[in-house]
Amino acid sequence: MSMNFKNLAIATLFAAGSMTAFAQEVQVTEVQVQEVAETFSPYWFIQPQVGLGSTIGETKVKDLLSPAAALNVGYKFLPVLGARIGVSGWEGKGCWVTPKQDYSFKYVQANLDLLLDLSTLFCGFNPDRIFNGYLMGGVGFNHSFDNGEANDLYTHGYKLEYLWSGSKNFVAGRFGLGCDFRVSKRVGINLEANANILSDKYNSKKAGNVDWQTNLLAGVSVRLGKIKTKPVVVAQEVVEVVQPVAPAPAPAPVVEKPVAPAPAPTMTEDIFFALNSSVITAEQAVKIDELVKFLNANPSVKISCVGYASKESGSATYNQALSERRVDSVAKALEAKGIAEGRILTAAKGSAVQPFAENAENRVVICIAE
User: Once rounded to an integer, what is the mean pLDDT over residues 198-202?
Assistant: First the structure.
């Protein structure tokens, strides 16, 4: 009877020790993550444009369509305000209604415009915004010439009361709307519709009101100069859960308290990328060096690398491919520094999973060495 009680006590103590060995150990670590954010600074830009123009008259718009072009140089001195100077022109048209006869002339116009950034005015400064609308207004100096077709009509009985020959100069008032669709940090596709208000004598016809020269233009906007950035430090809390391995049962029926082994060494690094990029910057390359140092010091440890993309930029298919390129860049960087391919596990989740609350933070490859 006493022997059975002794054996029962030994078994109970051993079971309690085994349960303690399987308990999870939780370790909380605070990590400082450094990002790079673009800040506004004044910059120059150039803006070539081509399209169609029309001088509004007493006939259908399609009958007065003519080619138009412009070249502008501008300066954005505030997030919401800029200015530009430029030259525009090509061909203007007029039309005598009865009997119907259209005629053309040439013009070139120097312009000075103010630009109001509507997207920034109402939604705040955002260098990653895809669509940026603007309102423009200004003045122009119009030099018109080559009005021979109108003069020929006059000689054939068309009474053009404001007919001019040689060349003629006019002052124009200007206004319009435009937008830029961001392609990269420096290049945008530009669309603009503008109207120029000129003297009634502009198209040689007397109408009793001002003449309107309108343009619908498309082109590109190219930003010049250095793009300034500043570091932003973000604190993150990382919870690491370590599962110790249960010790083997003691061979002898001796009651001893099992000792949990020391947790395996682990290391986590988040490698951040710029928008639409899979290039590792110099700031992020420092993290690659730290991972290599840790892996060399722990040759039995493997590293898991998972790539992501931010869901607010691009389609799901594009983001999946982008996350694959990012994780491939990290894996190649580790291999280039001597880490064996067999120790690197990779995966890519595109924008289907967003590990962070901030959209820009999800342009990342999360690396866990354990």
Answer: 90
> Cα 327 from chain centroid?
21
The pair of three-digit structure tokens given for residue 22, joined into one six-digit string: 């399987």
All residues at 6 or more sequence positions from 344 whose CB lies less than 8 Å from its CB, including other chains: 302, 303, 305, 331, 334, 335
pLDDT, tens only, 203-246: 888 888 898 999 999 999 999 988 877 665 555 555 555 555 56
**Quick check: 5 pLDDT over 60?**
no
Q: Does the pLDDT value for residue 13 go beyond 50?
A: no
199-220 b/e (C-beta count within 10 Å ≥ 16 → b): eebbbbbeeeeebbbbbbbebe
Q: How far apart are CA 290 and CA 367, in angstroms?
A: 11
Residue 3's identity, in one-letter code, is M
Residues facing 134 on adjacent strands: 117, 178
Cis peptide before 99 (omega within 30 of 0): yes
What is the set of domains in the chain, with CATH numbers? Answer: 22-37+229-244+260-369 (3.30.1330.60), 40-223 (2.40.160.20)
Cβ count near 89 (within 10 Å): 22
Question: What pTM does this model have?
Answer: 0.53
